[in-house]
Write a structure and sequence with these properties.
Elements (H helix, E strand, L loop, with lengths): L1 H5 L6 H12 L2 E7 L5 E6 L2 E3 L2 E7 L3 H8 L2 E7 L10 E7 L3 H29 L5 E8 L4
Antiparallel strand pairs: 1-2, 1-5, 3-4, 4-7, 5-6, 6-7
Length: 144
């Protein structure tokens, strides 16, 4: 019985491995949907924070507007230019409103991307855009 308790639930195993793979990916492609249903793909950085995949972006970006209207999306590992490196996964996302959660997510991205995130941080401070950053928390749904 004890051995069974340590064995992962086979129903969740593929979902967890997809989550792990996406969390380790350098870039992921987010496919969000316009009001007319057409898909828009955007390559972004991603990190793991508190059981979610997290992304930061400009709060006025169209991807944020699309996700506020429809939280469903697809996510896949990709190259810096968005060329897919893995399968699509269904997910849902929401804009993080809690400031401490937002800071935790940005720190997770900073930890993962190091000097690159430092450069983005400096540029955003100099350009005055950092105050408008939004964090998206993404959860895989397992729907394929």
């Amino acid at each position: 019985m004890a051995a069974d308790a340590q064995r992962p639930n086979p129903v969740y195993a593929p979902l967890m491995s997809a989550f792990e793979k996406l969390a380790k990916a350098r870039y992921v492609n987010l496919e969000t949907y316009r009001k007319n249903g057409s898909a828009v793909q955007t390559p972004v950085w991603v990190a793991r924070d508190d059981g979610d995949l997290v992304v930061f972006t400009n709060g006025d970006s169209y991807k944020v507007k699309r996700l506020r209207h429809n939280p469903k999306l697809r996510i896949a590992e990709c190259s810096v230019r968005g060329a897919l490196k893995g399968p699509w996964h269904q997910a849902i996302a929401h804009v993080v409103e809690d400031e401490s959660r937002k800071q935790s997510a940005i720190q997770a991205i900073r930890d993962k991307y190091g000097w690159q995130m430092t450069l983005v941080d400096i540029g955003a401070r100099l350009g005055g855009t950092k105050k408008n950053w939004a964090v998206l928390a993404i959860r895989l749904t397992g729907d394929e």
